[in-house]
Each structure stands twice: as structure tokens, then as C-alpha cells.
Design brief:
- This protein is of the alpha/beta class.
- 43% of the residues lie in helices and 17% in strands.
- It has a 5-stranded parallel β-sheet, with helices on both faces. It has a 5-stranded parallel β-sheet with strand order 9-8-10-11-12, sandwiched between helices.
- Helix 5 runs antiparallel to helix 10.
- The longest helix is centred in the last third of the chain and has 16 residues.
- 34% of the residues are buried.
Amino acid sequence: MVVDGSRLVRKLIGDTLKAQLPGADVVACADLAEAHAALEAAPIDLATTSLVLPDGDGQQLAQAVRATAGQRYVPVIVISGNAQEHLEGRHFSDDVTDYFDKSHGQRALAEFIRGYVQPAPIPGARVLYVEDSRTVALATSRMLKAQQMEVVHVTSVEAALEFLRERVAAGEGPGVDLVLTDVYLKGELDGGDLVQAIRGEFGCSKRRLPVLVMTGDANPANQAALLRDGANDLVLKPIEERLLVTKALFQLRLSRLPEAGAPAA
């Protein structure tokens, strides 16, 4: 289901969905009223929505999907030109599964949607994983390795920085394609310090070296600070495997795409 007040945007997103999932039945809705009618008519497997709708907003749409789906997993994705601003402000409710900022461009949107409807591994992608709990590290590493990623696991930010500095000194760049880190770790430094070092000391942009931060901290101000410091996205604990894998694969694919302008709206 694609919900957006703009007919052009509905067509763009609908065409992208059909291209990524041949044979899919795309239900286009111009507002909340049409979306409610569609939800009552038949179950859906994925919903995209703009933040602002003619008769409400995307948060209300997400709540309606959750109420209709019950315990069934249905991704609800907000597609907006200022999704990043809302993410940093922690304005999205728990009913929203994920977000996509239009500034990434139409090709990136196709890759993003593919991650939900047809997730595909990226063999050989290297992940620097920072986690000091052996139990959590084993479980999460299995999730990543199941997607054919190579996992370099360290237990502290200090060890992660040492690894990155050695790779840079050897002329290998950062030596990994993605960093996945917990926030609170043993040692003097935390996940926020690692994000700042990657963006500052190593000068890696979000495209050059994506960073996903796992956190159980529900404080909106702390979450926003991580994003402002340069984290690409947050993965809230307890970790849901499908969401973690989708976010990791999307960031890896996005880092491989050329810079693109925003789609017409």
C-alpha cells in the first residue's frame, strides 16, 4: 500500500515497488480515508506513507496498519523529504518501522524497498562489530554471517579505533564496509566516541563508512545526539533480526551507489 497526497509520488513509489516485486498488487491511496478502506478490504504486506497527508499524517496511518495487522509483521515506511530531521528529533512513533529520506534519490529508494520485499545478501561485505557481551555478540554475529557478511568483532571502542588506525596506516582505508556498535561498552570510550572519531579523525562520510548504533537507551535526547554526531541510523534493543539485517544491507547498498539528487515530487 502506497499512501501519499501526490499522484506523481504515488506513481513513482508504485512503479518502484512493481519493479522490485513483479506481480505485486500495489494499492495507491491519496489520504487516510482511502487507506482505512483499503485496510478493511484486504491484508497488506508493506505500507509506505508520506509524513503529511491531506486528512492526517503518516503516524496515524502507521497506527491504523498496526491495529489491523495485530501481531503480524507489516513494515510501515515513512518516505519524506525531511525524514532525517524527524528522526533526529525522535518524532517517529514505535508504529513506524523505518524511514527513507527522498534526498537519497530514486535509485536508492529502489534499493531500500528491495531490502524489505526481496532482501538479498552482499557476499564479502566486512562489518566491524563492537560489543562487549559475548552472548549478544555471538547471536548478532550469526545474524550477519547468515547474510554472507564477514564480521570483525572487538569488545571495546579502543580496540575498534586500533583496528581502523592499523588499516589506514597500511593503506587499506578503514578496512571495513560498515561499523555496527553498541553504545555503552567496557573501557573509557563509548559508541558515541567511536562515531565522532570515524567522522572526525578518519574523515569518513556516511556514504564512505556507514555506522549503525545499537542502543537500549530510550532517552530521545541521547538518541538524537548519536545521529547528529554522524550515526547513519539506530537499531533499538532488543534487536529484531529482520530489522537489523535490513538496515545493514540498505546502508551497504547505499554506500555503493553514486550520489543522486532527490526524486521529483
